[in-house]
Amino acid sequence: MHTVTVGDSYFHDLYNLIQGDIYSGVVPADNIRSDFTWSPIIGDSLNTKIFNLLNRRGFVLVSITSKPDIHELIRWQNEYLGSSMKDRGLNKGMYSTVMAEKNGKFFVNSNLTQPIHTDEGHTSVFPRYISLYCETPSASGGISTLVHSKGLLKNLKINFGDNIRLLFDQNAVCVKNVSGYESKSLLIRLKDGRTGISYSPILRGLSCDEPIFDVYSGITKYVHDPENQIRFRLSKNQLLIIDNCRVLHGRTKFPASDDRVLYRMWFSECHLSTMVNLTV
């Protein structure tokens, strides 16, 4: 079977596409109504509703009654989403500040459009749940973009048939990341029987068999079609909680002078090697 190996130059076309005004300029609703409003004094009944909706739909949007202590917000989510997963890198803690920095090296600390992805989708260790708390929304741009894996998987089955089973193999792809080379699956069977995804669209390098490369390219094309995205602008004091295995996310670019500030939190560390890899 023919093996396809690509370097970072392969991903330039996607990078240029998503940084363009056409991709970023698809007009969304200015904001989206929160599913629930939460404060520390709220009882367990509303908490149950919040996290039940997250389980059913894959994401939930919550208004926080006033600017919270970020550690209090983390502790509340710990009760329902599991232990915090420490962010990678030197001096990283239980949350990361998402804002544009001068000469930022990564999407998270730049004003660039961030491609649709799952957090840590370039490695075999990732958070099951993530959340983004908006302290200061963008004045222009910075639109949140979500893609539910349910529609993606349906599209892949139609276009690639049985070949999508190959994506469950723990050695489906070999990716080059900051740590070197790592083999990983792209699809996983979650404990509740649903299918999850661990995916990154822009890598330092990728190697896999040709049928898998075709499906990987199909994923990239589908998730970056605005017709398949839910787009909205986060408002001040809104918290977006996402099932990182079932809903992919990104954002559009915003002016470098914008003071957009979000806090990103990770919960429930997962390892692909311990997941149940079955066929669709």
Task: Write a brief caption for the model.
This protein has helices spanning 12-19, 21-24, 44-57, 70-81, 149-160, 210-223, and strands spanning 3-7, 36-38, 59-64, 95-98, 114-117, 125-136, 144-148, 173-177, 180-184, 187-189, 195-197, 205-209, 230-232, 238-243, 247-251, 261-271. By secondary structure, it is an alpha+beta fold.
Summarize this structure as a short list of keywords or feature phrases:
alpha+beta, 30% strand, Double-stranded beta-helix, 280 residues, globular, 16 strands, 23% helix, four-stranded antiparallel beta sheet
Look up the CATH topology.
Double-stranded beta-helix
Supply the CATH superfamily name: Clavaminate synthase-like
Residue-averaged pLDDT: 92
The total number of structural domains is: 1
Description of the structure:
With 280 residues, the protein is an alpha+beta fold. It has a single domain (3-274), classed as Clavaminate synthase-like (Double-stranded beta-helix, 4-Layer Sandwich), CATH 3.60.130.10. Helix content is 23%, strand content 30%. It has helices at 12-19, 21-24, 44-57, 70-81, 149-160, 210-223; strands spanning 3-7, 36-38, 59-64, 95-98, 114-117, 125-136, 144-148, 173-177, 180-184, 187-189, 195-197, 205-209, 230-232, 238-243, 247-251, 261-271. The strands form 4 sheets. Strands 2-3-14-6-16-4 form a 6-stranded mixed beta sheet, covered by helices on one side. Helix 5 (149-160) packs across helix 6. The longest helix is centred in the N-terminal third of the chain and has 14 residues, at 44-57. The two termini are 22 Å apart.
